[in-house]
Amino acid sequence: AIPPTRSWMALALAARMTPAEAHAAAEQEGLTLLRAENMTGFKGVCRSGNVSSNQFQAQLKHDGRQKHLGNFATAEAAALAVARFLRSEGITAAEADAWSSARRSCKPLF
Fold it and tell me: Which of 1, 25, 40, 58 is the most buried (most CB within 10 A)?
C-alpha cells in the first residue's frame, strides 16, 4: 500500500480537513500531532504566506535533506501530514526531535 503522505488522493483530502477532522484522523490512526513553540503550534508546520485556501505548509529537514509535504488549509491538517510522513519513515514521536522544521522556504507571518 502507498503510505498516506505519498498518495495524491490522501494529500488532497487532508488539504481540505478541518482541525477537528485532522485530530480525529490522527487519533484513529494512532498518531500524535507534534506540538511546537512556533507561530502555528505544530512541528514542521508554517504559514505559507499564500492567500489561497491552503495557507499552511508541512515540511521537515533532517541530515541536510528537506522534505516538502504539501500545502494545507489548516495547521492541524499540515501537522497530520507531518505525523504520517514520520510514521512512513519509521520515526516515532519521541525520535522526531532529530527532524527540524524547514522554515527557509516559508514566508514570515509579518
Answer: 58
Q: Return all residues near 41 (Cβ < 8 A) that are at least 6 apart.
A: 35, 75
Rounded distance between C-alpha atoms, residue 83 and residue 73, angstroms: 16
CA atoms within 13 A on the CB side of 3: 14
Question: 76 in helix, strand or coil?
Answer: helix
Instruction: Give the position of cell 488522493.
Output: 9
Neighbours of 81 (CB within 10 A): 28
In this prediction, residue 75 carries a pLDDT of 93
pLDDT digits (tens, 9 = 90+) for 19-69: 999 999 999 999 999 999 888 999 999 988 766 666 899 988 877 778 888
| Residue 72: Cβ-neighbour burial (10 angstroms; 0-12, 13-18, 19+) | buried
Distance CA 55, CA 104 (A): 16
Please report where in the chains the cell 519513515 appears, as a residue: 89
Other beta carbons less than 10 A from residue 16's beta carbon: 13
